[in-house]
Amino acid sequence: MKTVVSSDRAPQAIGPYSQAIKANGFLFVSGQIPLDPITGQIVYGGIEAQTHQVLANLQAILEKEGLGFDNVVKTTVFLKNMDDFAVMNKIYSQHFVEEPPARACVQAAKLPRDVYVEIELIAVYP
User: Fold this and answer.
1) Are 72 and 121 spatial neighbours (Cβ–Cβ below 8 Å)?
2) Which listed CATH number (3.30.1330.40, 3.50.50.60, 3.90.1170.50, 3.40.50.2000) goes with 2-124?
3) Residue 14: pLDDT band by 50, 70, 90 thresholds?
4) FRET partner for 105 with CA separation of 20 to 30 A, picked from 13, 55, 73, 94?
5) Does the active-site annotation cover 12?
6) How far apart are CA 30 and CA 50, in angstroms?
7) 49, 60, 105, 108: the active-site residue
């Protein structure tokens, strides 16, 4: 059994997918890009500003389910340019302080709307 999860504090899906799916004690959150949930526009300002926005979007979806970053067990980070890894990683590490989740990070040839970063995650319910 699965349930669609959606937060109005995160950007609405821009395609045929859900923000997140709750199934079997897990929350599977679709990749978030740096869209401002109020304006629907890309947040500009480079990798730093975009990483902050992506993590804010993910946090909004987690909070909708009463979860936080400490419930995250796996993330996948997609970067437009692997040279941005250090900046992204510094910001990312501020959200995953203790017992960080498993993670993969890859450079993608092209991300939606030509953004610098996209992050998806899987969280577990307590």
Assistant:
1) yes
2) 3.30.1330.40
3) confident
4) 13
5) no
6) 17
7) 105
